[in-house]
């Protein structure tokens, strides 16, 4: 199944689709104007939904943002959004108008949903925890892919399987991918050893921002909030730094 998705049902435009895109632009509307961020990882429990929900929640304070949960029926991001809608906090009520959630159960549906939401400023794709057609399509659709990696050797080894898929996608388009450390404890011997192992095993550039091992991330996920909407100062700094670094990368061509 590996190469089939790239060749038999390409998520990139065919000549006919390019013609439709041209007509779409001539009609005065924007085609593929939203900045799309994919959160991908083949291992569960590494922080995909944590990053997806925090990014989507904070980006929605700067523009219209769509969060698409591609891990159904698990639906962690979709559940977070449902809780956020019901939350009676002033912050949630203020920013919900700029945040929309959707779901995709297969790669064709995801392509259609991304096209449907091109009026947004940002689209955040929360990928499935496995090698799947959805993961392949996210790599092609996204302007930037983030790969969460927890602070353990096992998670670094599991991520190496994903890198083959990244290289495969590069045959179709330029892929901008960055590793994000989660549950990270800086300034420890273990963190340095893991950083060295990641460079050796993965060769994937990491964001300057890392997310620490903090209860506030679990709390925010359960309450439909971002950690920036909670009281822990260190978590606030981390997520705001993550958002700014992501926005900087989205502005860069490479």
Label this structure with key terms:
single chain, 254 residues, alpha/beta, 6 strands, 48% helix
How many separate helices? 11
Extract low-pLDDT stretches. 1-10, 12-30
Summarize the amount of helix as a percent range.
Answer: 40-55%
- Measure the end-to-end span: 29 Å
Structural class: alpha/beta
Topology as H/E string?
Answer: HHEHEHHEHEHEHEHHH
What would the average pLDDT be, to the nearest integer? 82
Shape: globular
Major β-sheet profile: 6 strands, parallel
Strand content: 5-15%
Q: What value does the Rg take, in angstroms?
A: 18 Å
Number of strand elements: 6
**Cross-sheet strand order for the largest sheet:** 3-2-4-1-5-6
TL;DR?
The protein is built from 11 helices and 6 strands. The chain is of the alpha/beta class and 254 residues long.
Write the layout of secondary structure elements.
Layout: H1 4-8, H2 15-26, E1 35-39, H3 48-59, E2 65-69, H4 76-86, H5 90-95, E3 99-103, H6 107-116, E4 122-126, H7 133-141, E5 144-150, H8 153-169, E6 177-182, H9 189-201, H10 215-223, H11 233-251
Parallel strand pairs: 1-4, 1-5, 2-3, 2-4, 5-6
Helix pairs in contact: 3-4, 3-10, 3-11, 6-7, 8-9
């Amino acid at each position: 199944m590996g190469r089939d998705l790239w060749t038999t049902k390409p998520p990139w435009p065919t000549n006919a689709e390019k013609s439709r895109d041209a007509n779409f632009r001539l009609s005065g509307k924007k085609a593929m104007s939203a900045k799309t961020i994919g959160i991908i990882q083949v291992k569960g429990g590494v922080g995909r939904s944590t990053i997806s929900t925090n990014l989507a929640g904070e980006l929605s304070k700067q523009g219209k943002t769509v969060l698409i949960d591609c891990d159904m029926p698990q639906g962690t991001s979709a559940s977070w959004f449902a809780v956020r809608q019901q939350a009676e906090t002033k912050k949630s009520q203020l920013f919900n108008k700029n945040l929309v959630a959707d779901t995709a159960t297969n790669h064709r549906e995801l392509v259609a949903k991304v096209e449907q939401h091109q009026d947004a400023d940002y689209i955040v794709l929360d990928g499935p925890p496995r090698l799947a057609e959805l993961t392949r399509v996210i790599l092609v659709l996204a302007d930037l892919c983030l790969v969460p990696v927890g602070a353990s050797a096992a998670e670094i080894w599991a991520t190496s399987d994903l890198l083959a898929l990244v290289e495969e996608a590069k045959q179709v388009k330029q892929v901008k991918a960055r590793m994000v450390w989660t549950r990270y404890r800086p300034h420890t011997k273990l963190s340095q050893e893991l950083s060295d192992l990641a460079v050796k095993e993965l060769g994937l550039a990491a964001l300057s921002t890392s997310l620490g091992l903090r209860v506030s991330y679990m709390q925010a996920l359960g309450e439909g909030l971002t950690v920036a909407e909670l009281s822990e100062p260190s978590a606030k700094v981390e997520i705001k730094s993550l958002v700014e670094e992501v926005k900087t990368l989205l502005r860069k061509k490479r």
